[in-house]
Amino acid sequence: KGQIGEVHQLLDEIEAIGLHMDLVAYSILIHGYCKLGEIERALQVCQMMCSKQVMPNSFTHGAILSGLCKKGMLEEARWYLDNLASNGQMVDIILYNIVIDGYAKIGDVDGALELYEQILKLGLSPTIVTYNTLIFAFCKIGKLTVAEHFLRQIELNGLNPTVVTYTTLMDAFVGAGNTDSMLRMFDEMIEKATMPNVITYSVVMKGLCKQGRLQKAIDILKYMHMAGICADQITYNTLIQGFCEVRNIEMAFRIHDEMLQHNLMPTPVTYNLLINILCLKGKVDYAEQFLNSLLDKGVRLR
RNA sequence: GAGCCAGCA
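Output (structure tokens, whole complex):
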């Protein structure tokens, strides 16, 4: 939750009682700092634990690697990873996955592939997460054919595609304007008895909206309720975005209302969409009124 | 008791 103040209080308390932080506790702390983007602090904690003879393990290194990757510091992450390996430490597949994902996120498929090959050379077994990440990497740069090739590779390697595998590909197809292939993937997933989740359905809805099949998208939402899959804020935002695209203020707000009825707090994205469509329709005064009502309620707008 | 992958303006 990013409540670092509370954490410091606890640390003081731990010390006051005379307890000692152990490996898990330190790793969690390091993970927390990395999530906040405070790599410096994380590394300091890592140094401190070492000085207390508590040696980092793979979880600890994983936290640091994700932190570096999230900051886009791939050079550093790569250096860190290579160092672990050359120091004879056991580098497990998860650490590779983390850095491969780092490359994927910045669109560096070569970096990702290089590590993938290193994994194979070391005799480590790629996991489904490795493949999902590689698929994401290729989707990200628009090489959907290669991405789909990896889907087949997964099965050849005796692994099972997961909901993440399919959803990643589906989203890429939607992004490429190929809703038919998205639906083809969806069917394949169902055939393989893989359960779609809220993210999968949101992607399906995004594709349908993009094709202007808004009623179909609403049908999906209804189906989700029936199937007991809770739509979340992103699901609703996706639908609202669909209606904004066709300038249907009425429906956009109706979905917003439905969101509230389901006890989901609209997000800043929701409000941006609604205010934007009001403006686009020339109802700037209305938009301002809406905005002011939000400000009065003290709603978080970013 | 802790670590990796997918969706919204």
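The mean pLDDT of chain A is 96.
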